[in-house]
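Review form for a predicted model. The reviewer records the input and the model, then writes brief findings.
Reviewer: anonymous (R2)
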Amino acid sequence: MSFSPASTAIFHLFPNLAAELRNQIWHDALPDTTTPALVPWKPGFWYVREAEPEIEWRPAHDLIIEVPIEMPTAFANHEARSIALAYVRDLQLKTVARGQDQNPVFTRPFEPLNDALLMQPSEIEAIAWEAAKRLYQDDMEGVHLSAYSDLKSIAMSATCLRRENAMQYVVELLDYYTSVDTLFVVVNDELDDQACAFEPAPGDAYEWTGNLQEFVRGTTGLAVGDGVVESLVCTEEVKKAFSQAGIGQPWFVVRPVRAIRT
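Model under review:
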């Protein structure tokens, strides 16, 4: 959102406030770094972790993906900057330089238990191939592995899922991201290669039900919306794909969300 100079309010008396009050205001203006984000997938690496009696095979997204943190108060004035930079040090955020005329940005690591990995349906094959290539390297010969991932949520655009008729292929990701239990379907198309926040969108969540071998409307949806999720999951192709994957008890949920751009 942009503001014209005429509509921007300036509190000229702010410097006259008590120092304790000014500091509290600057602290209250600091961003919440725990807010979940949609974070674009990018090619990374898989690594083997010795965890006897099993050897775990893990994706390393938390090591290679950084989530940008907007912190304009770091560039407001000396007083605000000192508080913001102390916050950066306490949280061990990274500082990333940008263009010559731009302020640097701060980043935090990707949180597999909190953030959602945003991907294009067309990248499903690339993700599987990246994992397969790692398996066939020389140091994997004779090694028995169990795939493991902390990742809980993935996200895809509703438009792309529909256009590529890709929902039935989502199940292929679950061979590698074994802990994923939620697919966020982004119902607005404000998607690019930048991380962003998200919020629930009107519409029902659908849960895979092992007993019925199909997706059914969940009890946690906000309201009956425009049927975006229903149109994606309630097809014979999707039912067949999930049934053949041997998914038993309810554990995979598809929810509609909206991406939020600042």
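Findings: The two ends are 7 Å apart (CA to CA).
Further findings: Confidence is low (pLDDT under 50) at residues 1-7.
Recommendation: see findings above.
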